[in-house]
Write a structure and sequence with these properties.
By secondary structure, the chain is α/β, with parallel strands linked by helices. It is about 45% helix and about 10% strand. Strands 1, 2, 3, 6, 7, 8, 9, 10, 11 and 12 form a 10-stranded mixed beta sheet that branches. The radius of gyration is 25 Å and the shape is globular.
């Protein structure tokens, strides 16, 4: 029995698809068998779907018939009867022929061009249109190499390998290079300066570029053409129409789209629902509820709160969201737009007063100010802390250390008071993880097509399955089950409706963001005792940016 990981099995399966499309049936069988051995060794549910395809490849329809009825019904090839010209809606796989039967080689070649299965958990087949050589809105040179640099962080990089396999299926002569890294700036900046950048870059992580700076320097290609291109799944639908709300806005600078922000992330507070249930605690929805609950949590030997002190922006997320909850979108727009007096708004003072009290009363896990993101997340999983700010990548990032029985659950930031401008349930949500195409990329057309593949139904589903998170494409996680974190995220987003919190400061102004993070760090270390110390500092920093003619200004309209 062969050992391996699910990502390797996905790649092998796509290679088998390509081999079958080229008529290399024996090679396809060997490749799929290797993928099946990995999935079987892992005990992965995808193994059953691959058995079906191998059974068909070998002409062993009886083997497929032995599958449980429910699985057999869900494993039917999508529209296979239309692709191969048969009138039987059950297709060749399950029903008896009612018309003339095409040649076996014809069926096999056409089978490779459709989605493998409609089984919800299956990630082994490329979308039918992915392999259609005529569907090429950007005029890709078919043998041009493509280099993709991926930030390998909380979401990992397995999903990117699937996307690259899908690209290879469409352009089998192209050499696709996958480059994972945790230091985007360190790897990409020298190449930008030398004029030979990669074709696609996932700009993310602690060492990411400030997109506003790259835009100002003319380093990024416009993605407006991608947004207006037809989707792979439906030529009548444009890519922009498949994006979740706010996705285009988050990648837009002065009316031009420069990034496809792909991970649709919800930010909020995470807790272990199983722990709360066992203690008889109710997750707080208001500041008063947290104030009443925090002493009980502390009495149980658990810290009410922890955060990733090494990366102050983790704590900056809920602080900023409380400001917007109290003051509404108008308060956030004043700050993002560098309006005079924006940091002296009452909403800022109210949010800061709350956090200052949390620190002063010892409700934060001791030493949190020096914890990495992984250490703070482990503290939550280990039951050392009850609540922690994070985003929807949490479960995937910590899957290697999750204890059995832990039920990671997302909670929107609580309401500060009854007078909040926005209701409880308002949540920061938006597309993050910026996929960009450098202006001087050697294969710009291929890069745009790669992003279009990512925006397909199959590409988005591969991301959701791999990361247990939402992609910024509609319906990406509709068939993903078994995750309390993802289920709660979907529920939180559904309840929020139009009450979505968004900020642009960190994208637009690198120096102001640095000042914000430094102030948040001092706040959580107990160095800031009064809200005015924080607001005066940030008002001064914002004024400096506003007065600096060398800094390109952006303006938020909503």
């Amino acid at each position: 029995m062969r050992a391996g990981d699910h990502g390797e099995a996905l790649v092998l399966s796509h290679i088998g698809d390509s081999q079958l499309a080229l008529g290399r049936t024996r090679d396809a069988r060997n490749t799929w068998t290797a993928a099946l051995e990995i999935l079987t060794a892992l005990g992965h549910a995808d193994a059953e779907g691959l058995k079906v395809r191998l059974a068909w490849l070998d002409g062993a329809r009886d083997a497929a018939a032995d599958l449980p009825t429910g699985l057999r019904e869900r494993a039917k090839p999508v529209d296979l009867h239309n692709v191969i010209g048969r009138g039987d809606p059950e297709g060749v796989m399950w029903g008896e022929p009612t018309g003339s039967r095409p040649a076996r080689r014809t069926v096999l070649r056409q089978l490779a061009s459709v989605p493998l299965l409609t089984l919800p958990t299956l990630g082994l087949g490329a979308c039918a249109r992915d392999a259609d050589p005529s569907d090429d809105p950007f005029g890709v040179r078919r043998d041009a190499p493509l280099e993709v640099v991926i930030f390998n962080g909380g979401y990992g990089d397995e999903y990117a390998k699937v996307h690259q396999s899908m690209y290879r299926t469409k352009f089998p002569k192209a050499d696709v290079t996958h480059v994972p890294t945790k230091d985007i700036q360190g790897l990409v900046q020298p190449r930008l300066m030398a004029g030979n950048p990669p074709d696609v870059v996932l700009n993310d992580g602690a060492r990411q570029f400030q997109l506003g700076s790259l835009v100002n320097d003319g380093q990024l290609a416009s993605l407006d053409g991608l947004m207006n291109a037809r989707t792979i799944d439906d030529p009548a639908v444009k890519v922009r129409e498949m994006l979740l709300p706010g996705t285009m806005d988050s990648g837009t600078f002065n009316a031009t789209v420069y990034s496809l922000n792909y991970a649709y992330t919800l930010f909020g507070l995470y807790y272990d629902a199983a722990l709360f249930r066992s203690k008889g605690w109710t997750a707080p929805t208001t500041w008063d509820e947290f104030r009443a609950l925090a002493p009980k949590i502390k009495a149980a030997g658990i810290a009410p709160w922890t955060h990733a002190g090494d990366y102050p922006y983790y704590m900056g997320w809920p602080l900023a969201d409380w400001i917007q909850k109290v003051g509404g979108t108008a308060a956030a727009m004043k700050i993002d737009n560098l309006e005079p007096g924006a940091w002296r708004q009452e909403a800022v003072t109210a949010a800061l007063s709350m956090v200052i009290e949390m620190v002063a009363k010892g409700w934060v896990l001791r030493g949190s100010e020096n914890l990495s993101h992984l250490e703070s997340q482990q503290a939550l999983i280990d039951g050392k802390a009850a609540l922690m700010p994070c985003g929807t990548w949490l479960e995937n990032e910590m899957k290697g250390s999750l204890r059995p029985g832990v039920e990671l659950t997302l909670l929107p930031v609580w309401s500060v008071s009854d007078g909040d401008a926005l209701p409880h349930g308002s949540v920061r949500a938006g597309a993050v993880g910026s996929f960009v195409v450098p202006e001087k990329a050697a294969n710009k057309a291929g890069a745009l097509e790669y992003l279009r593949i990512m925006a397909s139904a199959a590409g988005a589903a591969a991301f959701a399955r791999s990361t247990l998170s939402l992609a910024s494409i509609r319906g990406s996680a509709d068939t993903v089950t078994g995750s309390t974190a993802l289920t709660s995220a979907r529920e939180v987003l559904g309840r929020a409706g139009t009450n979505i919190l968004q900020w642009r400061l960190n994208d637009w102004y690198v120096n102001l963001d640095k000042q914000w993070q430094a102030a948040v760090d001092d706040l959580m270390r107990g160095r800031i005792k009064r809200p005015s110390e924080f607001t005066t500092r940030m008002e001064w920093a914002a004024d400096q940016i506003a007065k600096d003619p060398s800094v390109t200004k952006f303006r938020r309209q909503k």
